[in-house]
Specification:
It is a single chain. The protein is α+β, with helices and mostly antiparallel strands. The chain has 13 helices and 10 strands. The strands form 3 sheets. The protein has a 5-stranded antiparallel sheet with strand order 9-8-7-6-10. It has a 3-stranded antiparallel sheet with strand order 1-2-5. The longest helix has about 35 residues, at about 5-35. The radius of gyration is 27 Å and the shape is globular. The protein starts with a helix and ends in a 9-residue tail after the last helix.
Length: about 400
């Protein structure tokens, strides 16, 4: 009979082996899910990589169990862990720098101090106490970060000073805060917010705009326009809400620097300011959809317009921005599909829609894109009342 100490030692070995196996299973499962739910646009590639990684992991850890093979697998895991730590440290540093502290010099000093201490704790000291202090600081930062709230009460630029609202009474929709500025230059305009009334029964079409800040860029601004057979189109553009003196910047938009606004307005404003005064390259695509689907999407947008008017939100480039929200609302309206990298690199969103069959596929994409560029037509139309009709004159109309 084994002595009690021997039985205890064996039980502890079994316990530690079980905990170790559980940790390996969890790590292997986590990394497998990371690969499968990554931003690779091809489902077959994600599936192949998942199966290959999972097979290699099981084979290396529980069948072969040779030190060299386990070392390769461990190196892969440590590489993933290293970049995760780098991203977390980078995020925390930027969060401090773009926090709500009013003094820029203090934010810079604190951000550099946190970054320096984090590098020292994780890669030089590596002592449990130093890492524990870093973890406590990080948790404190998360608590502080969660208290930074968006607001409707700021000195807004005139273009975003008024939050729109929608009042729905059966078939009748009345929109207040409807933007219809008259521009003379990019920064010289007559501020004009109006009321517009439209009928859901007369909503017949949906159009999609891609506006490039510079030609051929992988990112752009996208927005939609709802067409009516008895009224001018209603454009809705999901944008940042900058204060006076502010302008959009991608990196700060990740760190609670801009509130969100849904600009609802006339195409002579939302389109013409881009084609004529900001010198953006604008493409207009007719979407293949039924009037019923277009109405459903319009109501989803109006619900969000009212929700945002009541409760401010932060703009976020990756989670609460123009194209990401357009896809989100299309899903609510009945779209079937998954996240695609072109929802982020939205300069390619027209190619995505073409391959999905949402645009006119009777033409080659290059020809459709050439005919969908509206800069010249918009500039020729000027501020004419039939602006919306004239910019669509040469557009191909997709079959329903």
């Amino acid at each position: 009979m084994k002595p009690p100490a021997g039985r205890l030692s064996k039980s502890l070995r079994w316990l530690f082996a079980g905990i170790g196996s559980l940790c390996l299973v969890l790590l292997l499962g986590w990394e497998t899910l990371v690969i499968y739910f990554s931003n690779l646009p091809w489902a077959w590639a994600r599936l192949v990589l998942v199966v290959a990684f999972l097979t290699l992991g099981i084979w290396a850890l529980w069948y072969l169990r040779k030190p060299r093979t386990i070392g390769i697998f461990a190196a892969l895991f440590l590489g993933v862990l290293f970049w995760c730590l780098v991203l977390l440290l980078g995020w925390a540093t930027q969060a401090i720098y773009y926090s709500n502290l009013p003094w820029g010099w203090l934010r810079l000093v604190l951000a550099l101090a946190f970054l320096t201490f984090g590098i020292w704790a994780l890669w030089y000291s590596r002592k449990p106490r130093a890492i524990g202090v870093l973890a406590a600081l990080f948790l404190g930062l998360l608590v502080w970060w969660s208290t930074i709230s968006p607001s409707h009460d700021r000195p807004w630029r005139p273009e975003v000073a008024v939050m729109p609202r929608a009042f729905i009474d059966g078939d009748r929709v009345r929109i207040t805060g409807f933007r219809n500025f008259d521009y003379r230059t990019r920064d010289d305009f007559t501020v004009r917010y109006e009321e517009r009334e439209v009928s859901l029964a007369h909503l017949t079409s949906l159009d999609f705009y891609v506006s490039y800040f510079w030609s051929g860029a992988p990112v752009a601004h996208t927005f939609v326009s709802f067409g009516f057979d008895n009224a001018l189109p209603v454009s809705i553009s999901i944008e940042t809400r900058p204060e006076i003196g502010e302008g959009f910047a991608p990196l700060p938009s990740l760190f609670k620097q801009f509130e969100l606004i849904y600009v609802v307005g006339d195409e002579r404003d939302l389109v013409r300011v881009r084609t004529d005064y900001r010198n953006e390259e604008v493409y207009l695509y007719r979407i293949r959809t039924s009037p019923e689907n277009a109405r459903r999407l319009f109501l989803i947008y109006l619900d969000r317009v009212n929700e945002l008017a009541d409760h401010p939100e932060w703009y976020h480039l990756f989670s609460n921005s123009c194209t990401v929200n357009i896809v989100r609302y299309a899903n609510l309206a009945g779209r079937v599909g998954r996240l695609d990298i072109r929802h982020i690199l939205n300069g390619f969103s027209d190619r995505y829609l073409y391959r999905a069959g949402a645009l006119d596929t009777t033409l080659p994409f290059a020809e459709l894109r050439r005919r969908s560029r509206i800069n010249e037509a918009a500039q020729a139309a000027g501020n004419a009342k039939d602006f919306s009709e004239r910019i669509r004159k040469s557009l191909p109309t997709p079959p329903r």
